[in-house]
Amino acid sequence: MAISVCDFLGIEKEKFDATGAFDAILDVDSKMFIDPHLLSACEVPEFQNSYEKVRQRFTDILKILRHSKEKGDVFWRRAEMYFKFPEVKGLCIGYSNKGTSGSAIGPGLRERLLETAKSIIDSGIEEPEIFELVGLFESNIGPDRLSDITANIISDDILNYSQRIFSEMGVETSEQTIEGESYKLVMNPHNKSAILLLPKTILRDLPLAFSWSDIDIVCSHNEELRHRVNQLIGDTWKQAVSQQKQYLKELILKEPGLLEDLITLYKVKPQTTYDFINDPAGQVVWYYASKETVQKFPLELKKEKVETPEDLMDFVITICDKYKDLIENNGLNSLLYDGVKPKKEEAAQKLFFGIADAYCAANNIDISREVNGGRGPVDFKFSTGYTNRVVVESKLTTNGQLLHGFTVQIAEYQKAEKTLHGIYLVLDNGGPIKRITDLKDLILNCKREGLRMPTVIFVDAKPKLSASRYEPGKTK
């Protein structure tokens, strides 16, 4: 069952929040990332020199590469050694689909990054920020890997911070030897590695290196270069970074002034931290909302025991119907919006997971998120054994893959998971009416032709004019 660090330790939430640490969910990665750009402003004692460590590591790599004459020479090999960043386990953040593992950099990706860095150096640019921005124009480098690289460089700061917070909270710890140093930490029961804590002030749902707006004008101080590249990539960096990475990379290597402009803008970007209270990405509030909601609205089951595949299907449908009711009539639809703007689909999926997980735990049912059964991931799998399974796929009506999910995905998932039962959970958050009508027509056609198809459950998740709104501690 999903559980936060705070709840696992048995600490009052107010006491834990007062430390400023992020209350991660054990065994469920929150898609939050360490943002190196925020480190320089961090006032937490253990992290006051962290950004300088990051800059120094990147600077050292660039200095070594500058002396390299060809790939494989002594300087190149030394740069490779400096560019090894084993994943830091125990952070519970990032993009891992199952568990809480990080994203290590393998030999192939490391070689490609060094080749790109060498090309940039040879063009006359040696700013260490190159490595913070490289994900904009290098494939397979995203927020998760930037975060993991940063975590590796400042791992001792993270360990010391975690040790201090655990000590201040007075929780039971065990002595762990990590990188030759001894720390008193708490173990994660899901993976038997130490739980590592992070201050919320260095986390974002999208690092600033990947976040650009319409006011970030390309080459605003170099009119000649701006005219030369505007037709190729647009006049703002928001437009530019939407290009294919390989195309942008080729242009940057051809026009080094572009990268100089990007670095200049990046250095002065406001160090805006994530809003954990309103949680615009839906990465945090689902846990607390589902915990409170399940306590207030216990599940009424048709049967006390789930024994047959049909029993399990009835149980999962009951959960889906309860989720539908909570969204439509009890204010939980408000958690799917950032103001009037719909949150990403994952916000709805995590809210469903939190609610379903709590109900499953009370009834000895296993639920897994994003299970890869050989044909791609499904959103959820419910099971009471190897053969007794139900898969659930969830989609928003704003998702362009809504019809594809019905016609292809569920059928494929049912084959892969060797189950006879599937549910397609459709949340209408204001998607195109034609898309919804087309789906309903497709369902009717399948019924007329007697085709095997998943059970479809529609949920009206649109904002209500007189809507009640979920507030922690005030669920109606």
Keywords:
Restriction Endonuclease; 12% strand; five-stranded mixed beta sheet; globular; 476 residues
Write a compact overview of the structure shown.
The chain has two domains: 209 residues, no CATH class; 176 residues, 3-Layer(aba) Sandwich (Restriction Endonuclease), CATH 3.40.91. About 1% of the residues have low confidence.
Structural features, described:
A hairpin with a 2-residue loop joins strand 4 and strand 5. This protein has 18 helices and 13 strands. With 476 residues, it is of the alpha+beta class. The chain has two domains: 209 residues, no CATH class; 176 residues, Restriction Endonuclease. About 1% of the residues have low confidence. The strands form five sheets. Strands 9-10-11-12-13 form a five-stranded mixed beta sheet, with helices on both faces.
Q: Could you give the topology of this structure?
A:
Blueprint: E1 3-4, H1 5-9, H2 13-17, E2 25-26, E3 33-34, H3 36-39, H4 50-66, H5 74-82, H6 107-122, H7 130-133, H8 143-153, H9 155-169, E4 174-178, E5 181-185, E6 203-204, H10 223-233, H11 237-240, H12 245-254, H13 256-267, H14 285-296, H15 309-329, E7 337-338, E8 341-342, H16 345-362, E9 366-372, E10 377-383, E11 389-396, H17 402-416, E12 421-428, H18 433-448, E13 455-460
Parallel strand pairs: 11-12, 12-13
Antiparallel strand pairs: 1-2, 3-6, 4-5, 7-8, 9-10, 10-11
Shape by Cα distribution: globular
The low-pLDDT segments are 96-102
Number of domains: 2
Number of H/I helices:
18
- Average pLDDT score: 88
Q: Give the beta-strand count.
A: 13
**Largest sheet entry:** 5 strands, mixed
**Helix-residue proportion:** 40-55%
Strand order of the largest sheet: 9-10-11-12-13
Strand composition percent: 5-15%
Structural class, from helix and strand content? Answer: alpha+beta
Distance between the amino and carboxyl termini: 24 Å
What's the alpha carbon Rg, rounded to whole Å?
25 Å
